[in-house]
Automatic annotation (TrEMBL):
Keywords: Membrane, Transmembrane, Transmembrane helix
Assigned GO CC terms: membrane
Domain VTT: 117-236
Protein name: VTT domain-containing protein
Organism this protein belongs to: Lactuca virosa
């Protein structure tokens, strides 16, 4: 009897806090759902369709300016074998049709980032293989930043129902962190970009939903993507030696990125400690 009383009292002492935390998370999700708009309005659907149409016109324009040839090799690479085939063919055109290849590359990369199509890592490898380290890194950072920005604004228009259905728990976590770190939000966003704490795809879609200002998003993206872009582009130069995508990020690369990420938030932590 005494044991039952002890178990009852202990469970009653802990359960309210747990229940309150669960209720808080549920209330946050519900509040986000209440503010979401679904189904989308006609104007929102038209805006999203306009984005897709603009990319389609851009790709068609690049395709029409290339010389007559067999372009059956042109497809989004999903494996290293696909990437080898694409690289071998594009090398023939890069020197004579540099502008078309660059425009086509950027358009495809931005399109993939905007619509969250997986496979941009293959595009980064391709940049290194075709253009070298310096030009490749510049190209990848530009295209990735432009694509992330395009995704940011598209999500601001129609992204709320999508992210609530895919990542409700992550969205609540991200919203709490952004609310807590308003004074050092740029450092926090840099940390997220430099480390695999949250997927870049999620950050692109969720940032406008949790009210991350675009100028902060843009700066953190353009700077934070440089280290990972360098690692991937550099690997693209020796593409023939790469056996799997997992070989890109060994333990040394991951630790290095984490250290850089920690360094990015250290000034904010020091400032808060001094203020306290």
């Amino acid at each position: 009897m005494e044991q039952e009383q002890i178990e009852t009292s202990s469970s009653s002492s802990f359960s309210p806090s747990i229940v309150n935390d669960d209720k808080n998370d549920e209330s946050k999700v519900k509040s986000l759902e209440m503010s979401s708009k679904f189904p989308l309005t006609a104007w929102e659907m038209a805006g999203a369709a306009g984005v897709v149409f603009a990319f389609a016109v851009g790709l068609l324009g690049v395709y029409l300016t290339l010389p007559d040839s067999d372009y059956s090799f042109l497809k989004l690479p999903k494996t290293l074998e696909d990437l080898h085939i694409l690289r071998d063919h594009l090398e023939r055109y890069t020197s004579d049709y540099t502008v078309q290849v660059l425009v086509g590359y950027c358009t495809v990369y931005i399109f993939m980032q905007t619509l969250m199509i997986p496979g941009t890592v293959f595009m980064s490898l391709l940049a290194g293989s075709l253009f070298g380290v310096l030009r490749g890194v510049a190209l990848v950072v530009f295209a990735a930043t432009a694509g992330a920005s395009s995704c940011y604004f598209l999500s601001k228009l129609i992204g709320r129902p999508l992210i609530l259905s895919l990542w409700p728990d992550k969205l609540v976590f991200f919203q709490d962190q952004v609310a807590k770190r308003q004074d050092g939000l740029l450092n926090y966003m840099l940390f997220l970009r430099l480390t695999p704490t949250l997927p870049n795809m999620f950050i692109n879609v969720a940032s406008p939903i949790v009210n991350v200002p675009y100028h902060t998003f843009l700066m953190a993206t353009s700077i934070g993507l440089i280290p990972a872009a360098y690692v991937t582009v550099k690997a693209g130069i020796t593409l023939g030696e790469l056996r799997s995508i997992g070989d890109l990020y060994d333990i040394h690369s991951i630790v290095t990125l984490f250290l850089i990420g920690i360094a990015s938030v250290t000034p904010t932590l020091i400032t808060k400690k001094k203020e306290s």
